Amino acid sequence: MPETKSNSLSKLALQKFKKNFWGVLSFYFIVFCAIVAIFAYVFAPDNSQNANQMHLSIHSKPPGFKVQMLTIPSHDSSEQSFFNKIFFGEKNTDTEIPIEQYVFKNNVLKVFPYSEGEVVELSKEIKLERFPEGSTPDDISNTYIKTQTFVLGTDKYGRDLLSRMLVGIRISFSIGFVAVLISLILGISLGAIAGYFGGKIDTLIMWLINVTWSIPTLLLVIAITLALGKGFWQVFIAVGLTMWVEVARVVRGQVLGVKHMQYVTAAKAMGFTNLRIITKHILPNSLAPVIVISAANFAGAILIESGLSFLGIGAQPPMPSWGAMIKDHYSYIILGKAYLAIIPGLGIMSLVMAFMLIGNALRDALDVKE
Prior knowledge:
- With 370 residues, the protein is α+β, with helices and mostly antiparallel strands.
- It contains 15 helices and five strands.
- The protein has two domains: 2-35 and 162-365, Orthogonal Bundle (MetI-like fold); 63-154, no CATH class.
């Protein structure tokens, strides 16, 4: 009977969620972003590791910029598996040169590097031996010289901004997922123990919660990051260790309200262990608010990571991070190229807003009083 009721409540909550337009839209947007994050290198025009192909001669170009790109193949024979390329990017050692024009003379390819139409650089001569054996001028023109379009333009190092944005989604999603996972494990465990056992254990855990709560989140994250060192995983741990407090307080409150229910008393009378009573009977009836908080914490983790990267103690170069991209280009706002900072800013804003909206939708759907 309780299982049937649980199923019916779940279906009712799902039906209420489906009626929330912004919640459903946010859900599909988050799913889309998750797919992009997993297969970022498949969608990115620059599929090199960290989308880090630099072309200083075409730095800070506007969206839609086009240029002829000459690729000089490398003879490095390092092998890379198919799945490694998809998930971690291609170890690209080829040389790419933006050019304005080119001409073949005898066994030499003469190219004029891109110079923005201001100062014509000296031409460069490239022997055809640099290309695969048997390549004709037509083969080289069709295979190694192509017009490349930078949909979102290039950053101050001449890297493709679209590729950096796509790969940067991984950082935001990863930090959110790992930080929320750590906060749930710590928060649910400590909150459930404090609420169920009470007494001195409750007092000790509440003291720990209050001390952690009293320290500003960003300062605590910075302190933990500096203690663990700069890096990718250090930020994950640091953010996760600061987000468990709210989860623990909510779980403790829920457990305090549920542990005196008749079915908990019946479970104790039947001789069930405390662990089973907590995991099988109390927590399943206490997690609705935690789901809502997790969505908000996901958004908060993305903002904290962006702030840390902006301060230079988050994800380290050349790893693309939306916060670091804003840091690199915020001065361009007054130089007529504000899009270099606005585009990653819009990415952060849209992802955070999606998680906040889906959190609001879950709150409405899981509210059994309505």
